[in-house]
Amino acid sequence: MKQSMTFIPTLREVPADAEVKSHQLMLRAGFTRQNTSGVYSYLPLAHKVLKKIEQIVREEMNNAGASELLMPALQQAELWQESGRWYSYGPELMRLKDRHKREFALGATHEEMITSLVRDEIKSYKRLPLSLYQIQTKFRDEKRPRFGVLRGREFLMKDAYSFHATHESLDEVYVKMFTAYQNIFSRCGLDFRAVIADSGAMGGTDTHEFMVLSDIGEDTIAYSDTSQYAANIEMAPVIATYEKSTEEQKELVKIETPDQKTIEEISTFLNVSKESCIKSVLFKVDDKFVLVLVRGDHEVNDIKVKNLFGASVVELATAEETIKALKCVPGFIGPINVSEDVEVVADHAISSVVNGVCGANEEQFHFQGVNIERDAKITQLADLRFIQEGDISPDGEGTIKFAKGIEVGHVFKLGTRYSESMNATFLDENGRTQPMIMGCYGIGVSRTLAAIIEQHNDENGIVWPESVAPFQIHVIPVNVKNDSQKDLAEKLYTEFTQSGYEVLIDDRAERVGVKFADSDLIGLPLRVTVGKKAEEGIVEVKIRKTGESFEVSVDELHEKVKQILGN
Questions:
Q1: Where are the alpha helices (H) located in 280-401, listed in sequence order?
Q2: Segments forming the whole domain that contains residue 97
Q3: How many other CB atoms sit within 10 Å of the CB of residue 519?
Q4: Residue 243 belongs to some domain of the structure
Q5: DSSP structural state of residue 387
Q6: Judgement on whether residues 230 and 269 belong to the same structural domain of the protein
Q7: In 10 A of CB 66, how many CB atoms?
Q8: Where do the Aminoacyl-transfer RNA synthetases class-II family profile domain residues begin and end (predicted)?
């Protein structure tokens, strides 16, 4: 491709609204342009990278036994109403009406659509298992689009779905998909971890997220420093044991604590450790109030609360709800003398607190000398806190450390969540009607593009892994008005192209400094510069990843390129 004939509008300055490297570099290197908040055009270079990522995805999905199809982005509301998600998905679902006032949604995901397709065609266990996938644009009305294409309102996604007659069959395909995802992200040149995750609004069990390690990641990964264990921080169980003090129990005393609301404030005011304080957090779990207790140095994990109760929705109680349920403002609430309408549960660590401190359910007052088993009615003890760095790894090997990650893939065992609600059934070998068992497997294709840039860049621009680079070789004639340089550059361009390489030639009438700056910014793996020694048959080769540069004769150039890039 001739650079003068394509569209690569590079920028010298970092755009003011671009917060992260991938967003900055995709704008500066002419890969994307924003059309409106959270919506981007992918320019020719980005489009080529997306197609390469898609090809890697297709190869691995096909190897895993999945077939590609394409479903509509416009989905009728009736399908979402069948599954119940029309009412529960939330404002992220983009809804619209046609001229006949019929309701539709722009596809944020395609569980309902694929389930409706398969239920209408598959009636026997003999046609199962079946795995289908598509690569298509998705739409989600993000409240706060940010970080360029990492969190947008329109994005490119691969979503796959599998249908099974048995859980054993689902287990087999899940492993295949898990392996395919490992292959995909490895081939894209990413440093990633597969972590245990929560299925959220998707439903299902046995789910893993594929996280690209990055400081700008919005998710925290808890991982062992000595084993392969890794989990999203919300899902990491705590296996710590707690020793209870042998200190003699003291009398419960109510004391005035003016304006001391936080654990930090109350521990300083009373000169006690955070570990001896009891943090009380009121949640609305579906339609009932639940007071959750954790030790003062811990934080409540709302996902664990949700899983404990098998709830659909868990939300922090508002100030008004807290006053209604506990007759007290937040900051002074506690588990003693609460209404029977409020269930009280506690994290395991609470059982080790002796003569602790908690809110008195009276503004400006706390209790001291609190001993939970004596002073409060706890319905159950459970693992309800976030794991912390330094805790024992849940697999018993090593201790926990934290890292930030960008989610680029997610695999789920959906079970019968959608097939039961949408009546997707089959006849088993005994002629009995059974709901299909489903799996779901998603990859953010456009997000993967940005994640690659986050991990592969330097102070001069992008440094593309060879597997996904928009071009492999960048040929640059220093002076296009010099016939020797121009002719040799075009000759090399033609020969490399005929040899099967993807080549970009900078045939623009620009200063060499501009060409080199753009070349580093775009980040192609190999640069071949045709300069003053063109008449001698000598060119300069630069490897973008290492910065290494050297002169080589044209006679030896092809062999050298072959050594660096392969066939």
A1: 302-309, 319-326, 372-375
A2: 31-237+402-453
A3: 22
A4: no
A5: -
A6: no
A7: 24
A8: 38-465
